[in-house]
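Appendix B.2, paired examples.
Example (i):
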Amino acid sequence: MLKKKSGYVIAILGATGAVGKETLEILEERKFPLSSLRLFASKRSAGVELSCQGRDWKVEELTPAASFHGVDIALVSATDTISKEYGQRLAAAGVIVIDDSGVFRMDSDVPLVVPEVNAAALRLLPRGIVSIPNCTTTPLVMALKPLLDTAGIKRVVVTTFQSVSGTGAAAMDELMTQTKDLLAFRDAKTEVYPYQIAFNLLPHIGSFGDNGDCSEEVKIARETRKILDAPELLVTATTVRVPVLRCHSEAVNVELYRPLKANDARAALAAMPGVLVYDDPNKKLYPMPLDATGKDEVYIGRVREDASVANGLNLWLVSDNLRKGAALNAVQIAECLVTR
């Protein structure tokens, strides 16, 4: 575990990516106790300077020869290949690794953490690695946790509406370019996605398995069970890519073990740290990506009882996938570690 210090050396692998840049902003906003910052990215970004906490930090090229001497915590938000290559190497050198990829999430000796839900899992780090969940799983478990504690959960059915920023900067550029081209009556070119994303929906995220589920759908189910420590929980998901730049939305149907009125569900959700209940049908008040962009909270609305099943509940949630879905969650884990 970390030794108590006045400031810590933090390394960010993937510093010039969308999540890396968001991480720098969050470290500054939350006044994380930094003594130094090491930024790593590909060769084309080496030498670029990025600002954080009143200083400019030069980006270093990430190579096998890179030294991580003196680093306390490494925030890894790059590719699965980078996580595989550097995650265990950093941990073996005594660096605590907070990894954003799917490489270690389901390893039994690596905690999968959303601090508001299962911070206690950070007490033991046998491999020196902590995983953060998929950017759709994180807001989902934050909505499910208070309902689980209040009435118990038998089954979860979730449909996600995921923004293109979940794929990366190139996908955001593709959406913007396609939109401009189509509005100018030009053909849309596809590179990042198999089909046009502008003015379209793609019910396909990740790779297809033999049973027809996408890998993203499998991740959500497995990760939800692990984080909530509910191995028997029934979870099924359908994941959809939508032409939105930022923020993931989810339609969630929950079958509870005990009855729960909509107002009691709202109260339980409102008491959950990091959750903002944004729900007034009479005023057409409900969460939208425009509301949650750049915000830390998970916005929840459209809370209502489902008469089609015993003890059923419907809700709608929106979360900024680059913040709480990735960068913020990683920084919050680092904060927990330095506090302990």
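Example (ii):
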Amino acid sequence: MFIENNILKHYLKNVYFITGTAYAGKSTMVKMLAEKYDLIFCGENYTCDITDKVADPDIQPNLCFMNLMNSWEDFVKRSPEEYEKWMYGTSDEVTGFEIAELISLSKDKKVIVDTNIPIDVLKEISDYNHVAVMLSPQSMSVERFFDRNDEEKQFILSVIKNCDNSEEVMANYKAGLELINSEKHYNEYAESGFFTLVRDNNEQDTRKEVCDKLAKHFGFVKGK
């Protein structure tokens, strides 16, 4: 079955998407906006409970990878190319789950989501004032990747540290992050035509300023 994009756009009219690169502040902004403007909050990987139950290895092999791997060491020891392919393959496979979930959640209330939906799909199913791109320089997205209290990322860090050759494994994992956050992928976001914010100052606390800019862009507040 195929659903036309104009139909999806109509049913997603209450959804506001934030996408972009790692360590750009997406998760923080989604949480702040949800709290400040009474929106339904959909954080990173919010569809996991659904995909764990429904995903089929024959249809969604990337989403099922972690359920089929032998150990978490297998996850962190993949080649950079395999990691990049898996990451973007997962985004493609989770798109249908996200769209279905967001249609369900947004029927009567606005939703703000840290999304994995690819940028080319967002162009088809949403509008300029419903999408924001947040970017960070590659050096920041790679070197500061684990500098957060994010439970999932701290678990991955612990797996790497417990490997016998942990320094080599970390170097390999960061090489994968470099591919995922490469200039090619960065430019796909930067040149998308969507409203874009770049995190270029890591010393000052700009959360309120960024939140206000996003709120204005999304139309949550009115202003010049």
